[in-house]
């Protein structure tokens, strides 16, 4: 059984409790009965249609009154709706998919780039066993995406090969500025990719990303 929730409002989506035959592993579930949700553009607050990614905002009887101190509420609400900070999308039937955190999105020349989208492309390459994408500062574009890759056994691809592979599958502003091979991807005990640490480690190692 899958579910999605948070301390501020408890459960928002979950698998249909009395329909085990309908449970899915690729979605957090369906909306619970007493919670309302919207998928909105995180910059404008405008609603997104089903199938398009945006920020999940929620409200309901179990929503917290606010944070303490009150200054912590700055930016936490949008006209009474709680901003979860999670990026996701909803199928026409109501099944919710969470894909990113807003703070993990990479800003490239004003465009929001999902690291997960780039990772999904990389993982389709037979020479990639695991990977993670993070954004690092760039004086021209604001940020640029870079990747750390755990190569598959007997992999022969170079960093340039994988960079070209991503460029062939995604829009130009989503292309990688660099690829580094690592023995393992940095993750927390719960399995969360530590993107900030990956970005910091990139700079600490003195890697120079390719010009975009």
Secondary structure blueprint with pairings:
Blueprint (H helix, E strand, L loop, with lengths): L2 E4 L3 E5 L15 E2 L4 E5 L13 E6 L17 E2 L2 E10 L5 E6 L4 E3 L2 E3 L1 H8 L5 E11 L3 E10 L7 H11 L9 E3 L13 H10 L8
Parallel strand pairs: 12-13
Antiparallel strand pairs: 1-2, 2-3, 4-5, 5-7, 6-7, 7-8, 9-10, 11-12
Provide a compact summary of the structure.
With 212 residues, the chain is of the alpha+beta class. The protein has two domains: 99 residues, Luciferase, Domain 3 (Luciferase, domain 3, Roll), CATH 2.30.38; 100 residues, GMP Synthetase, Chain A, domain 3 (2-Layer Sandwich), CATH 3.30.300. It is built from three helices and 13 strands; from the N terminus they run E-E-E-E-E-E-E-E-E-E-H-E-E-H-E-H.
Word description of this protein:
This protein is α+β, with helices and mostly antiparallel strands and 212 residues long. It folds into two domains: 99 residues, Roll (Luciferase, domain 3); 100 residues, GMP Synthetase, Chain A, domain 3 (2-Layer Sandwich), CATH 3.30.300. The protein is 14% helix and 33% strand. It is globular and about 55 Å long.
């Amino acid at each position: 059984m899958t579910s999605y929730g948070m301390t501020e409002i408890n459960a928002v989506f979950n698998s249909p409790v009395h329909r085990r035959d309908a449970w899915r592993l690729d979605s957090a579930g369906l909306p619970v009965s007493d919670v309302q949700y919207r998928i909105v553009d995180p910059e404008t607050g405008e609603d997104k249609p089903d199938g398009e990614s945006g920020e999940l905002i929620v409200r309901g009887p179990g929503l917290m009154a606010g944070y303490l101190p009150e200054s912590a509420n700055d930016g936490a609400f949008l006209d009474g709706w709680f901003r979860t900070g999670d990026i996701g999308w909803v199928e026409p039937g109501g099944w919710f998919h969470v894909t990113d955190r807003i703070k993990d999105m990479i800003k490239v020349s004003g465009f929001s780039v999902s690291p997960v989208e780039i990772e999904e492309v990389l993982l389709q390459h037979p020479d990639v066993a695991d990977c993670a994408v993070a954004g690092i500062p760039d004086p021209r574009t604001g940020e640029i995406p870079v990747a750390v890759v755990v190569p598959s056994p007997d992999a022969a691809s170079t960093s340039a090969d994988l960079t070209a592979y991503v460029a062939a599958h995604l829009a130009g502003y989503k292309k990688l500025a660099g690829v580094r091979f690592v023995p393992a991807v940095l993750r927390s005990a719960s399995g969360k990719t530590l993107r900030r640490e990956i970005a910091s480690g990139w700079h600490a190692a003195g890697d120079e990303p390719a010009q975009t």
